[in-house]
Amino acid sequence: MANAADKTAVVIENxxxxxxxxxxxxxxxxxxxxxxxxxxxxxxKTYRQSLxxxxxxxxxxxxxxxxxxxTLRKNGDx
Length: 78
Prior knowledge:
Helix content is 78%, strand content 0%. It is an all-alpha fold.
């Protein structure tokens, strides 16, 4: 865990906890250091949307799996 007194380390830890790779973490740090908050927020919104898209994709797959296994049980194939 990063030392709370080291703001940069805390920011890096949070960015990595969000799943950002080293390149994206560096870009975010640069935007924050240069006080380009509008660009940083736009980048975070885009990243958030990509995470949400992944959630929806995997949720759809889980729904298909559940329906498939339900159908097999219902038809006595399992």
